[in-house]
Structures
1.
Amino acid sequence: MTRLRVGCVGTGFIAGQHLRALAGFDDVEVVAVADTVLERAQQAADRSGGRAYGDGLTLLDSEDLDAVWLCVPPFAHGALETAAIAHGVPFFVEKPLGLDLPAAQELADQVSASGLTTAVGYHWRHLEVVHRAAELLARTPAQLVTGYWLDKTPAVPWWPQRAYSGSQVIEQTTHVFDLARTLAGEVASVAAAERAASDGRGDVPAAASALLRFVSGAVGSISSARVLGWRHRVALHVVAEGLVVELSERGLTDHELRVVTAHGEEVLRSDQDPIRTEDREFLDVLLGRAAQVRVPYHEALRTHALACAADRSARDGRPVGLPDPEGR
């Protein structure tokens, strides 16, 4: 059996989820793990039987890899992807693609020129409940879209600083923007506002809200808040003609689809592990068992552009238009 030699840069929560998933596949060998805190890298590498590195660039320079997972904070993107491309190593990268749009656009051009297989961790795209919602809305298009990411402030020290996380909109709520694109299509323009932080815990806004106008003519809003002591709601609600579709996430393996019509409602609960599913898909493409990934880098760039537009509109106080993918 062919075993792919893979590495992972990062050992935080989401990296741990990917490493756990990879450890469950018998056609994968995690040969190296990197983290800026070498002790954490060593602990993760010991679990996989691989080597530990104090930074990802050294890992990419030193190892002969079939693929690499880049699970780093927003401020750490750029050099790692460029190095993977230079070494010809296909990469899976966690969202967001970076702090801003220009750097991600430049990387997208490099990826396109290289022809490398890439994937990005918008894991909702892999959920069967999302596929079911998309099927319903393909027959009855969205008219109104309402999304939420209402949560606590993450404990990691870099997150409340806009210079390191981008913002809650870019770092977290990007998942909800991606789901809105998946279910309602591309967005033509966004007008947003934000409430400044006042708790002394950095300059990431306490709350933000974006009004969306979709290419289809649908309208919507997506709101974020980081001022709670718990995760209250991560969800997207879509209203169509005679139909309401509600998707919510309570945890990585706890999702719910609620479909409401005049005849009643249907509730589907899912304990599917979307991290395992997206990792398996990426591996299968590399092994020639699947044709393509659901979210390659150039597709994720559209969601990143939308989240960045919402963030920029809130900062600047004016609407931001997005390019029509059909050129209209």
2.
Amino acid sequence: MSIQIRASRHAMIPARQKPSLRSRLAFTLSFAAVVLGSVGVVGSAHAADVQCELDRPMRFGGMNWESNLVLVEIERFIVEKGYGCKTEVLPTETLPALAALERGDLDINTEIWLNSVGEPWAKAEATGKVKRIGDIYMGGEAWFIPRYTAERLPGLKKAADLPKFKDDFKDPEEPSKGRFYGCPAGWGCEIVSGNLFNALNLGDTFTLFSPGTGATQKAALTAAYQRKENIAFYYWYPTPLVGSLDLVKLELPAYDPAKQICLTDVNCVDPQASDYPENPVFTAVTTQFTQDAPKLTAFLSKVVVPLAVMNEAMAYMEKNEAEPEEAGQWFLKDKQDIWTTWLPADVAERVKAAL
């Protein structure tokens, strides 16, 4: 991809006019000129008395999945209210975000899923322009079927078993094959999904369907689940979808680090099947940012959220149909025992006063 930053789903739009998460995830480049000129609001009067280390807005990468959007809103609030800075969110996707970070168009990418971008991250880190500064939580990825499908098809235990059941997952656009829902187009996990699909030799019996956006993928899977249709798909967690559906993982061959390296490479010549390992999710910033803003860097390096709490935040979003900003506020109000450990006492008090 000639790497570009795309239009913001966060919009600097008045609250009463703000679209839903699904609508914001579908924004297109036509809005970019508006968003790239937009700046987040400075924090409270308490924060206004604090001199930000940056003389410009801090630029966050807004990825198009829920956990990232919530974490960005949490961090933005702290940066604005606790450190007196301005912020802006530049929406992007996995690989474009990494390139933008390397160029310095972004200051921070809050959530990098290492297993999805192992090779690209290694290359970016080798340039010395970006740094990994803190691990947020250990995420996961898997191939799933609904539990009702597992009960209907008791012989389907492994991903390698899928060809025997192609007629049970009929692709409406190519009925002679089954459909497997892969990773949304343009995301880093699309590379792994595609290589793993090829490694399992599924191409003769299944189509690999890559939804255009994460919102499209979630909507399609949720609708099929509600209709009790058989579906086989890739997904990651923590996410509202995995937390709200009763799912069963399809078994994959044992994890092999060497095979995984090739699976994350878009130019992998001979992909070999391997299970997904636990997936470190970490924060990365530009090297220049660490030099310009050491206090902000120290804060971001301490951002750690237990996986159980991330699952709780995702469940809150799903149950309450909450926007990322709302979920971020819930976290800041309800989980003060977690986020206050990231901050000096005076900064934490300013953030509390702004809630």
3.
Amino acid sequence: MANSRQEHNQRAESRSQRLTASEAAARLGVKRSTLYSYVSRGLLDRSVALDGRTSLFDPAQIDGLRTNHRRTARGELSTVISSSITKLDEEGHRYREHPVAELIGNGLSIEAVADLLWQHHHDRSNWVLEAGLRSDLRRTQLSLAPAIGALDRLRVSVSVASADDVLRNAHSEGAFVEAGRIIIMSMVHGLGVSAKATRDEHGVARALWPGLTKSSRKRGARPNESSVRALEVAMILLADHGLATSTFGVRLAASVRADPYSVVSTGLGSIGGVLHGSAADSVVRLLARADEIGAELAIGERFASGERIPGVGHKVYRTVDPREALLFSALERGWQSDPRLDTVKQIRHLVTDRIERPANVDLALGALAWLGHFESGPTAVFAIARTIGWVAHAVEEMGEIPVRFRPVARYVPNHPDPDRPDQDP
């Protein structure tokens, strides 16, 4: 009886600390109707008071939504998709409830992180491609013109691997994960056919390094353990980041039960856009210019020409991108004796302290590519790393109802839209 009374008192106290709908709406700065739309979209939980009518809300959940809430851009469409893969937070995001900072601090490899996201286990020997596929990749890549870019080479590698896999249309979870491993290693080899190869057994990051630097003979292109680890840290941080544009496209493809190679090709198509996946390329150019004329002059040139400063700001994070600090720390260890690191630090100081814009992971990724003399650029690192997350999201989507995404088009006559300032009259 005493225990029952105590539980009743605890429930009553919990209800008393909750917010009414009016209080919750005021706290969020929205209308009550908007508040209830958050409930219907799964963003908020609602409980009912003892009177059976009054809606109650957890103040901590309200504050969390307020913290993560951002203003929707004009014309932006948004949707909510449940996922247990990655939780984004300015204090550090999590993979499957594991803080990514801890995964890095504990020295986990990119292969181990892939296994965590995929919820499968592979031995190091599983990350070795068969000789026949290696030969097909090499022959195909060497037939391409030398000027072909890294992203196109990655797409070709995925196509070659797809043609080689007679089981590509198997839609079991295990088959999808196995194909993901093959795709990643095929992309690694596709970049490195013209470079001195590194054995797969040494790990994905070390095998990728020659393909990124290729024919570069500069001293900074020769890796040490710390610089290879910096590359691996970058891949871990970039492996997934929620429903970015490319990942949403991947889930659309998985929803119609596309094969793994087609799913990844969908993602690669999305990051071919200049607004997604290739932002760090501009950082490389900024750092090279800063190394020539000084950091302040290089930033000043950007302002004078009306160009945006790359590697700053983020739609998800208001104050800090936690990935940037983790990767920057790895860069400091990998290039601690390289004088060019001072240029990176100067640019980072200017954008964060003088311009007062938070640096994002693209700034650190561009710095990695510049310090490491990556001829293939940072986009290749982003694409190969993000493939891990794409596979995880595809597998998760396979557990949902097929073809569940079906937006409805609203037909409008073909005339200028007054709400579109970028449209010619």
